[in-house]
Design a protein that fits this description.
heterodimer, A: alpha/beta, Rossmann fold, four-stranded parallel β-sheet, B: alpha+beta, Porin, 3 helices, elongated
């Protein structure tokens, strides 16, 4: 009799364990939990927050001071990727050095390339600087196109729709919430874009010097020309002889300023700024790129203010 | 059923509502003005949308013009490419990513010979060749197999005693679709043991591996087998795993294939301290029982059980918060190996002598990247051989009372992510009468596929 009871409890324990394990495996995203979003960069984290509101938890893999391309697949990122329901990155091989390692190791099927939990922003926007024939002698170019797509606000609007669609699919019980937030974001954003465009009308046709091709989308949107870059080739840091050449090249051209991101070294820009007597314009580049840029809209406000305040 | 009835009834009531219940004139006015305001709101919205469409259209044309322009310049630059190059005839996008590593060097050593006293070592643990030489030339192919598997193969070509040897360093498939943080890897691959073992040498921070990795793992332990790992759903990074192997690569050896010749297990934790510092700690073991391993160019044989335990630590600190500009890396590993069996040194003619003892070793290193293209580094390695049984006195296992050590300094210049040139100086005192000053000039170039930024 006693023996049978023990056997019974054992069976019960075993079946409970099996059920528990089954539940663990079968429901990677229970309805009550928040959607875990892994954002490669702060701009995508901020955009996901606009759409996801309090139904999502955002993990930003980087901050505004980091050059995303050069990051490592560090342990904390792997732990975050393991738990992610949705990954939002720029794509176009910007994160090629570390994102594939995380995806390979994390054991998370949903967020693999092409999966429901994977958004590569550059797949959803018109890309600039798409190369047909590339060679590494051209420096660190991305053949798929320039990956820094977030600085054209029209691209932000395009990606916001994709985020809303995916969130609605992943967390279908809150789909109307996401859709409502997206449409109100879209409406406000469109107004803001019109306002920025009016504000920047007089910038059209201006010339600037850039550090790296980080600003292509911003400049294309506003009709500003990048006449030179401080890097001799993309991904190769500025050196004295190249800076000397840039100084020669910009002689006689009316240059509005030198654009610098928070993660770009100011040394070369300072030298050129003094020699050519043109100002350095330090732009936030992404959310958190300076003390003002606390969300996407303010980041663009701040960017346009800084561009406009130079004469 | 009752709900349906209710619905039908209320519909009937609504349809039969008498017109007398309709609104008064005043109400009508309100409705009219409401409609008017709604119309106004819609019209302004439509106007807004029209403006938006216009700007989008304008942008599209500029984008199209830009793309066209790029294509034109590219076509002009490469006259051999036909103008229709953008329409690929043979689709190569399904080809695996191909990478070639060219790793060459010039070395100069002050000592003729440098045998590490107290240890029987494998081929890769020996000092490199003097003069100009190609270290490893590596060919790597990798791709996703389908939606559930990925694969990678690394073929290494290297020179040893004037012969070119072809070696399959790695050839494995791994899962990508398992849930719960699981990954299964099968084939031949560098096992997760300590820190350096799973890395290819071209990614190292020095021109050679530290002494304990050379002596205990022959550079890398890469055997044929299966490895299962799991990243746990914890807030700090936690990973556990283990593998079962044929037992044919140093420090295992002599596998007859009848059984599992070696197995591994590891556990690691890691995380961040603030935004600028990350760290990882690990423990791992490699167990090879009933092996027959030849060392020192087949002159020394060990038969028996060999158990290796490794503790590893690594921390990376970016002083400015941006590791592309500046970075400081600390890294170290501690090794202890228990061996129970017999050693025989045929060169010294010892015969098979019972051996039951442990050897150990460690290294610690630091790299300072002070400029986006420049790094300096220092490393110290130390080995401790076991006590020598009477029968092995005077053999390769006799360290002569000397604990081998090496101190190394290096400086390297990285032009782009794909090229690196390094100068290294090492002082190695690996035996009583060996005070070796080693100078190495090394270049590591990567062609093709983009390398991984491993932690």
């Amino acid at each position: 009799m006693v023996h049978i009871i023990i056997k019974g409890t054992k069976m019960k324990k075993l079946s409970l364990m099996i059920i528990g394990l089954g539940m663990l495996l079968a429901s990677p995203m229970p309805a009550f939990a928040k959607v875990n979003i892994f954002a490669c960069a702060p701009e995508w984290g901020a955009l996901a927050k606009e759409i996801g509101g309090d139904k999502v938890d955002i993990y930003n893999a980087s901050n505004a001071n980091q050059d995303i391309h050069h990051m490592r697949a560090k342990p904390s990122l792997l732990a975050a990727m393991r738990k992610a329901d949705l990954v939002i990155c720029s794509g176009a091989s910007l994160e090629i050095g570390w994102l594939p390692i995380l995806l390979n190791k994390a054991g998370n099927n949903q967020v693999q390339d092409g999966g429901i939990g994977s958004i590569m922003a550059s797949d959803y926007v018109p890309l600039l600087e798409v190369m047909q024939n590339v060679d590494r002698s051209m420096g660190h170019v991305h053949p798929e196109g320039n990956p820094h797509v977030h600085l054209d606000p029209n691209n932000i609007a395009l990606v916001s729709k994709v985020i809303a669609e995916r969130l609605s699919e992943i967390d279908s019980s809150h789909s109307s919430y996401y859709e409502a937030r997206q449409s109100s974001f879209d409406e406000n954003w469109a107004k803001a874009v019109t306002q920025w465009e009016t504000q920047a009308a007089n910038l059209r046709g201006a010339n600037v010097v850039v550090y790296h091709k980080s600003w292509t989308y911003l400049l294309n949107w506003l009709g500003i020309q990048a006449v030179a870059s401080l890097e001799p080739k993309p991904g190769i840091p500025p050196n004295a002889s190249h800076l000397e050449k840039v100084l020669q090249d910009i002689q006689g051209k009316n240059i509005k300023g030198i654009l610098i991101a928070p993660f770009e070294n100011e040394k070369g820009a300072k030298w050129l700024s003094e020699k050519a007597n043109i100002p350095i314009i330090k732009l936030p580049f992404t959310v958190g790129g300076n003390n003002q840029a606390t969300d996407l809209k303010i980041m663009f406000d701040d960017t346009l203010n800084r561009l406009n305040n130079i004469d | 059923m009752s709900k349906k009835l209710l619905l039908a009834a209320s519909a009937a009531v609504l349809l039969n509502m008498p017109p007398a219940l309709a609104a008064s004139d005043a109400d009508l006015e309100v409705i009219k003005s409401e409609i008017q305001s709604m119309r106004e709101a819609y019209e302004s919205k439509i106007e807004q949308l029209e403006r938006k469409v216009q700007t989008l259209e304008a942008q599209q044309t500029t984008t199209a013009q830009k793309v066209e322009k790029t294509q034109e310049t590219v076509a002009a630059n490469a006259s051999s490419v036909p103008a229709t190059a953008q329409r690929s005839i043979r689709d190569t996008s399904f080809n695996p990513a191909v990478g070639v590593i060219i790793n060459g060097q010039y070395s100069n050593f002050s000592e003729e010979e440098a045998d590490i006293a107290g240890f029987a070592i494998g081929e890769e643990a020996e000092r490199g060749d003097e003069g100009f030489g190609l270290e490893h030339t590596e060919l790597n192919f990798s791709a996703n197999v389908d939606d559930k598997f990925r694969g990678s193969a690394t073929i290494a070509l290297h020179e040893h005693d004037g012969d070119t040897e072809v070696e399959i360093e790695e050839a494995f498939v791994a899962t990508t679709a398992l849930p719960a943080g699981l990954e299964v890897k099968a084939g031949r691959f560098f096992s997760e043991l300590g820190y350096l073992n799973s890395h290819h040498s071209h990614a190292d921070d020095f021109a050679d591996r530290p002494l304990p990795n050379r002596v205990f793992l022959n550079g890398n332990y890469g055997d044929d087998g299966v490895q299962v790992s799991a990243v746990l759903p914890t807030s700090i990074y936690t990973e556990i795993g283990g593998g079962a192997f044929r037992g044919d690569d140093f420090p295992a050896g002599g596998a007859d294939g009848n059984d599992i010749g070696a197995w591994t297990a590891y556990g690691r934790v890691g995380g961040d301290v603030g935004e600028n510092t990350s760290w990882r700690l690990g423990l791992s073991t490699l167990q090879a029982d009933g092996i027959s391993r030849d060392g020192n160019e087949d002159l020394v044989n060990f038969s028996g059980d060999s158990s290796l335990y490794i503790a590893d630590a690594r921390a990376v600190y970016a002083p400015t918060g941006n590791n592309a500009e500046q970075e400081i890396i600390f890294q170290g590993e501690y090794f202890i190996r228990d061996e129970d069996g017999t050693y025989e040194d045929t060169d010294a003619g010892t015969g098979a002598i019972n051996y039951d003892d442990s050897q150990s070793g460690w290294y610690a290193q630091s790299i300072y990247k002070f400029h986006p293209q420049w790094r300096v580094g220092a490393r110290y390695s130390q080995l401790y051989a076991g006590d020598v049984p009477a029968g092995l006195v005077g053999s390769a296992l006799d360290d002569g009372g000397h604990d081998p050590w090496a101190a190394t300094a290096m400086v390297d210049w990285t032009n782009s992510e794909f090229s690196r040139i390094r100068a290294q100086f090492s002082r190695e005192e690996v035996a009583n009468d060996s005070d070796d000053n080693q100078f190495t000039l090394q270049y590591i170039m990567s062609l093709g596929a983009h390398g991984a930024h491993n932690y």
